[in-house]
Amino acid sequence: MIKRFLLSNTFLFLALLVYGQTDPVRESTYHFTIKERELTGPGADTLKAYISKSQFFLLGEEHDMTELQMLTADLMPFLKSSGYRHFALEIGSLAAERLSSIYRKKESLMKFNSRYYKHFNSGPFGFFDGKEEEVFLNAALDNNFKLWGIDYESHGAPLYILDELYAGSQAKPILKNTYQKAAQYIIDEYAKDLITIKYPIYSKMLHSAELAAFFQAVPANRSNQKLMEELILSWKIRDEERNNKWYARVENMKKSFIRQYKDEAKKKELPKVFIKLGAVHTARGTSSSGFPEVGNTIYELANYSNTQAFSIISFARYRKDEQGNISDLLEPEDEALLKYTNKDSWSLINLKQLNEARLEGKINLSKEVIGYIQKYDMMLIPPATTRMQPNFIR
What we know:
394 residues, Erythromycin esterase homolog
């Protein structure tokens, strides 16, 4: 009888011990869903709490995820109510101005994209040739966000910029011949780039007599000067990239962000900025590009201002094809971290919380997970997501 009593109590103790053990990964993983454009669930509460108390919200993304674009749109009213007024994007400053103009004038973005896409196999803005991107763009502008283009102009931008230079000139008859020659030169050379490996397209643009003649003939004013300078700068940076030199782009993004931030800081102290870029650009410290990118600059700015920069990395675990079939893209090195994510809900992993558990000796983490922790605050995994629908007609 006594032996049975002791044995049962031993099993009870072991059960309590096992029950009392916790999994820090489970405790750091929060879920939420979106219903009627409202985020609901513990993950939504956590996400919103961090966004609201930060000056900078950085969303580092894997591109071409429908679910993330729609989430971005759904977050816009909350971002506005939390004091955010500026939206930094992976596009050029000219693209930001033109996209804002298309919205204000109620023009068709699909029609604009389609006019130029065929010549470059790329939209004129680099992004926003997906329908879901236009949804979050419109949501941002509906909520009175100011767009910041902090990158170079798109590969597909030259013709629309030439068209703007020509349309804005009061000397159209005089310019017509040089404009037509310059435009045809661009069309012909970019056609060669589409079929020739490593064609020196940007060098061709920079040394074109046809383009030089047109730029020289364009009336000299501030607007025209900016259009030409940004296009030429973009060609120079892209030419560097063609030669595997990334620093020029990194440096341009930093300078562009700081310039626009300073302009807004003159009007309002500590302006709040939402930043949506590829994850390589939003990392703390040295990014996978080999350089401290604009994300690190923003963290340093927040530290200097005694505010907070909140950073998320988002990528797809589950991809859904056009037939509705779902593929699990889980990488072996991410398996331990993503074991509580699922295809039916958003999963938010608090990397800071997980790191605290590591420092307390509650869990051992791989070097890959520690790498995420060093560069980002949280990880956001969408439910099964499709690729975006094209916002252009070929």
